[in-house]
Amino acid sequence: MHRIAVIPGDGIGPEVIEQALLVLDKVSSKFGVRFEYIFIDAGGCAIDKYGVPIRDEDLELVKKCEATLLGAVGGPKWDGLPGNLRPEQALLKLRGGLKVYANLRPAVLYDELKDSSPLKKEIVDRGIDILVVRELIGGMYFGPKGREVKDGDEAAYDTEVYSKSEVRRIAKVAFEAARKRKKKVTSVDKANILESSRLWRETVEEVAKNYPDVELSHMYVDNASMQLVKDPSQFDVILTSNMFGDILSDEASMIVGSIGMLASASLGEGKIGLYEPIHGTAPDIAGQDLANPIATILSAAMMLRYSFNMEDAAKAIENAVKIALKEGYRTRDIYTENCKLVGTKQMGKIICENI
Amino acid sequence: MHRIAVIPGDGIGPEVIEQALLVLDKVSSKFGVRFEYIFIDAGGCAIDKYGVPIRDEDLELVKKCEATLLGAVGGPKWDGLPGNLRPEQALLKLRGGLKVYANLRPAVLYDELKDSSPLKKEIVDRGIDILVVRELIGGMYFGPKGREVKDGDEAAYDTEVYSKSEVRRIAKVAFEAARKRKKKVTSVDKANILESSRLWRETVEEVAKNYPDVELSHMYVDNASMQLVKDPSQFDVILTSNMFGDILSDEASMIVGSIGMLASASLGEGKIGLYEPIHGTAPDIAGQDLANPIATILSAAMMLRYSFNMEDAAKAIENAVKIALKEGYRTRDIYTENCKLVGTKQMGKIICENI
Ligand SMILES: [Mg+2]
Ligand SMILES: [Mg+2]
Fold it and tell me: How remote is the CA of residue B191 from the centroid of ligand 1, in Å?
């Protein structure tokens, strides 16, 4: 029996979570394992209900679960609120509370979806299989921030801070992951200008000494944003900071065709993990059975793999997704000519049937 | 007579500057105007000669010129130096010293170079004509930075700071530019997380009230990095901060095919301007007559337009570049099948002949 905190969230969150839970139910009966779901409100829906992005008692409940499966939070409805009351604050609190410092985002190009990539055939034909390892609970998104008035001119600041121990632990995750892949780490920073990037680079080089079998290179973030478009096949593992990782992992998602396909795992010490799709709440299509549930379903697969040690079940889900794609089923976001257009629920059902 | 500070810099800098000066010489004789060139060492070459990225007396000399034309600075040779002795420090000092707060980077897709874009034909066929307006002397690249040790753990920090007056003046540049284009400004920030971004957004909305004829929208930076790849035709003017602009303008450069084609102007109050190609020093191809001089030549054209009010001469250069491309001449970086491969010097010569 595994206790899972389930956070549907806002926008398309509840719809895609619903399908992921159906998939987990199928896994449950097929693999003879029981899951207990603890439903938690977080994000905009929690603001509406309780006036806060996530209640402290709910955060405590989440911490008592083995893993958390999250849909997405946020939306224009709550955009006018002050910073500490934004739905996104729930994500920061969850990541901080669970101390999940390593965000793993695979960006994989499926053969069947090559046409969905915005890149030219000759570039995608070289293949795309990138794992972005993003530091998740440090840097500018968590550093000191505020406002001040100087000579009548209002100013606002945010602080990018990294300590060596923070960089060390995320670098280790990247090198360990690279060992199981193509043994190549590209560390992305802005060391030609930022002091925090220089400390980042020094520390990554120190950690690299323990991984002589892994090839390390450094790249400036502005160059990385170009190289991802120019030749994504050059990358294996991209190791980077919270903010740069936010930008680059989304760019990496786009070049493989659809952000609706991409899962993520956020890992801390031990087996604790927070699993969520990369995409947002997409309020424009919420509640219309249009959302692609695959990213959330694949996030559930990552949960089975990293938190529950259920490699076979994880593979069964991933394989079921591949079969659905091979059979030509597509949600709107990945639809191309001559494919079969399906909604959120039907896509979930087809994947369940393939498990 | 116009006094121009000329900073060849490092790597391919001197080669591409040489061709731009030949083009200016041609303009000089054709349009009956005299240019005086004041050569200044800055970047790695200045470190080698004087031990500093740029000498104070040289910075003063630059300030006395009407405009500055710069190649590129930096290279792996100086990467090991402490932050304040990096070649890039020269750029920051120049930008800060000249108070050029607005960096204008056009990313235009030339019909002849459509094949060089890494994006699919159906995307580039919609056209790409983006002007990135990047704040250049504020934000994290100039904010307080340093190191500190806490409980034996070394940390480093950088600070993103923006005041309302800084945001106001750069926003005005973007709205003014948009008025002369498609009347559309996309302001890019991370207002869902950063306090500085929230101040940015508020201020941009205040400025927008004076431009009711210009359409303003806001976009998060991670989404912008995706949208640039997915559908660049949606953008007209992108207004953003120093750091986000560094990343996004390089990405915008890549999607139009070659960074070797793209010029930039950095403007302050009055007619003062710093003109430079977007590309770096490319040390791997330096001194081999392989670099594309077009970005620097087009930067010289921007100088004629913005600092010297010589619109006709600027157009003559831009037209000469188009003719060279139409006739099939290409440097290595933009070469495609059935074109005529030329070196740096020959490309410069052909463009001169077309003026
Ligand atoms: Mg993001
Ligand atoms: Mg750059």
Answer: 12
| Residue B151 dihedral angles phi and psi, to the nearest 5° | 50, 40
- Check whether residue B278 and residue B244 sit in a common domain: no
Could you give the angle at which helices A242-255 and B221-230 cross, rounded to 10 degrees?
20
Residue A107 counted as domain residue: no
Looking at the structure of chain A, the number of domains it has is 2
Q: Among the three residues A238, A255, A272, which one is the final residue of a domain in this structure?
A: A255
Q: Any idea what DSSP says for residue A116?
A: G
Residues 165-224 of B with CB under 8 A from A: 165, 190, 192-200, 221-223
Q: What is the pLDDT of residue A271?
A: 82
CB A69 within 8 A of CB A17: yes
Q: Report the candidate in B272, B319, B262 with the shortest Cα–Cα distance to residue B30.
A: B319
pLDDT score, position B97: 92
Q: Tens digit of pLDDT for each residue in A271-302?
A: 889 999 988 999 999 999 999 999 999 999 99
Nearest ligand, CA B103? 2
Distance between Cα A279 and ligand 1 center (Å): 8
Flag whether B109 is in a domain.
Answer: no
Residues B23 and B133 in one domain: no
C-alpha A292/C-alpha A71 separation (Å) is 12
Strand, helix or coil for residue B257:
coil
> Which A positions 247-276 lie with beta carbon below 8 A of chain B?
247-251, 253-255, 259
**Token representation of residue A124:** 């995608």
What is the C-alpha radius of gyration for chain B, rounded to an integer number of angstroms? 20
Residue B245 lies in a domain: yes
For A133, A254, B123, B205, the CA distances from A232, given in Å and listed in that order, are: 15, 12, 18, 37
Tokens of B11: 């790597």
| Domain range enclosing A168 | 118-255
Q: Which residue has the higher pLDDT, B192 or B296?
A: B296
Q: How far is B231 from chain A (nearest CA, A)?
A: 8
Interface of B with A in 222-241 (CB under 8 A): 222-223, 225-226, 229-231
Out of B250, B322, B335, B349, the active site residue is B250
Tell me the ipTM for this assembly: 0.84
Contact, A264 vs A91, CB < 8 A?
no
Burial class (CB in 10 A: 0-12, 13-18, 19+), A234: middle
Query: Looking at beta carbons, which residues of chain B come within 8 Å of A147?
Result: 195, 199
B18 and B95 housed in the same domain: yes
Q: Is B151 a catalytic residue?
A: no
Q: Within this chain, do residues B124 and B214 fall inside the same structural domain, yes or no?
A: yes
The nearest alpha carbon in chain B to A253 belongs to B226
Question: Are B74 and B1 in the same domain?
Answer: yes
Q: For residues B245 and B225, is the Cβ–Cβ distance under 8 A?
A: no
Nearest CA in chain B to A90: B193
Q: Which chain A residue has its CA at the smallest distance from B87's CA?
A: A192
Q: Which residues of A touch B223 (CB under 8 A)?
A: 250
User: Is B111 part of a structural domain of the chain?
Assistant: no
What is the residue-wise DSSP string for B141-175?
Answer: GTS-EEEEEETTEEEEEEEEEEEHHHHHHHHHHHH
- CATH code of the domain in which A207 resides: 3.40.718.10
B3's enclosing H/E stretch is strand B2-9
Q: Which residue ranges of A make up the annotated binding site? A: 75-88, 95, 105, 134, 222, 246, 250
Asked if residue A324 and residue A233 are part of one domain, the reply reads: no
> Do A97 and A163 belong together in one domain?
no
- The tens digit of pLDDT for each residue in B54-89 reads 999 999 999 999 999 999 999 999 988 887 888 989
Chain A residues in contact with B222 (beta carbon < 8 A): 246-247, 249-251
Show which of A255, A283, A302 is a domain's final residue: A255
Q: Which ligand is nearest to the CA of A225?
A: 2
